[in-house]
Specification:
With about 220 residues, the chain is of the alpha/beta class. It has a domain of about 140 residues: Vaccinia Virus protein VP39 (Rossmann fold), CATH 3.40.50. The strands form two sheets. It has a seven-stranded mixed beta sheet. Strands 1-2 form a two-stranded antiparallel ribbon. Strand 4, helix 5 and strand 5 form a beta-alpha-beta unit. It starts with 7 loop residues before the first helix and ends in a 17-residue tail after the last strand.
Length: about 220
């Protein structure tokens, strides 16, 4: 956590009116969102908009999701302090920072090297430890540290990449937006004895997940 914290009031209002008021109840998630300085994870010039209820551009055609969606996805992971978490799509690093508050180990995979570098800088500036940012194809997961108690995918793919399901531990939870480019369904998977239970969580709109098991480049199939 950064020593200077000029936006505490804005964060309190964000949690009270955007998140708590809309049904997110996990106390640990709410506390993490009150603590992590979201304004340190947006580009210069967007700091005053960091706590508004909307996504913001972070460069490279990517976005930081609106606070409410971040809160919903984080709550649905049901994280415990000892959990190992895999994040697909580091972006600005904000989601990873929240995960680090709630879990034991966080591996975050980012396809774009420039974004990965910026995320590392943002995490360091915010005083967040416990996140390892890896550059690679997130649709392949990160086998060296598998299995994971929870996996969160912050970009949309036509289907959930099979390697991510394979890397999910028994009892593990996976959250991902699934569907076409323009709009998707937020899906939660829970793994039981090698099989997965699918739980729909509602409609969302995310940037596309590019990779071997996602969208195939900028043209999309």
């Amino acid at each position: 956590m950064a020593e200077t914290d000029p936006c505490q009031e804005e964060r309190e209002e964000m949690v009270e009116f955007q998140i708590l008021a809309r049904g997110v109840r996990d106390r640990r998630v709410l506390a993490a969102m009150r603590k992590i300085p979201r304004h340190l994870f947006v580009p210069k010039g967007y700091e005053r908009a960091a706590y508004e209820d909307r996504p913001l551009p972070i460069g490279e055609g990517q976005t930081i999701s609106q606070p409410y969606i971040v809160a919903v996805m984080t709550e649905q992971l049901d994280l415990a302090p000892q959990d190992r978490v895999l994040e697909i799509g580091t972006g600005s690093g904000y989601q990873a920072a929240l995960l680090a508050e709630l879990a034991g180990t966080v591996i975050s995979v980012e396809r774009l090297a420039d974004l990965a570098d910026r995320a590392r800088e943002n995490l360091a500036r915010a005083g967040v430890a416990g996140v390892r940012v890896v550059v690679g194809d997130g649709t392949q997961g990160y086998p060296p540290e598998a299995p994971y108690d929870a996996i969160i995918v912050t970009a949309a793919s036509p289907t959930i990449p099979e390697p991510l399901i394979d890397q999910l531990a028994e009892g593990g939870r996976l959250i991902a937006p699934v569907g076409p480019r323009d709009c998707q369904d937020l899906i939660k998977l829970v793994k039981h004895e090698g099989r997965v239970e699918t739980i729909p969580l509602g409609g969302v709109c995310f940037v596309p997940l590019i990779g071997q098991f996602g969208w195939q480049g900028d043209g999309y199939p």
